[in-house]
Design a protein that fits this description.
The chain starts with a helix and ends with a helix. It has two helices and no strands. Helix 1 packs antiparallel against helix 2. With 139 residues, the protein is mostly helical. The relative contact order is 0.10. One of its GO terms (cellular component) is Golgi cisterna membrane.
């Protein structure tokens, strides 16, 4: 009974972790999409500035846009890596939950078999008691 409660608690904790990782995963996907949109905007700005020739201010803006693009690309790469790590963790938790579920089912099966065996033994003992009572009555 204690191990049953412990396994239920572990399953509950792992389920919460999986749900947490799934929500983090979703949030990171949204962040990646947002950064990709910003990257696209930066690339459009670069194209616009590239079309304007000669202006020192435009060159500075172009340089800033290129720096922002590089920064955004680095952030996208970092978020993609984090996303992959979270997905790997989530997969590990799911696998662990499956394993514990399997162990749980085996334990339930064993306990069920023990209960069945004990019921059969009880019936045998009850029959022996009745037989002994009959023998005592005869004596």
């Amino acid at each position: 009974s204690k191990s049953s409660e412990e396994i239920k608690q572990q399953n509950s904790e792992l389920s919460e972790k999986v749900h947490s990782l799934v929500s983090k995963n979703s949030a990171m996907k949204l962040d990646v999409e947002d950064l990709q949109k910003k990257l696209e905007m930066a690339e459009l700005m670069i194209q616009q500035f590239s079309n304007q020739a000669g202006s020192l201010d435009a060159n500075q803006q172009l340089q800033m846009a290129l720096e922002e693009k590089a920064s955004l690309e680095a952030q996208v790469a970092q978020l993609s890596e984090s996303l992959q790590q979270l997905q790997a963790e989530r997969d590990q938790y799911v696998e662990k939950l499956k394993e514990e579920g399997s162990i749980w089912q085996q334990r339930v099966q064993q306990l069920s078999e023990q209960v069945h065996t004990m019921a059969e033994e009880k019936e045998k003992h009850m029959a022996q008691i009745r037989e002994l009572e009959a023998n005592i009555t005869e004596l």
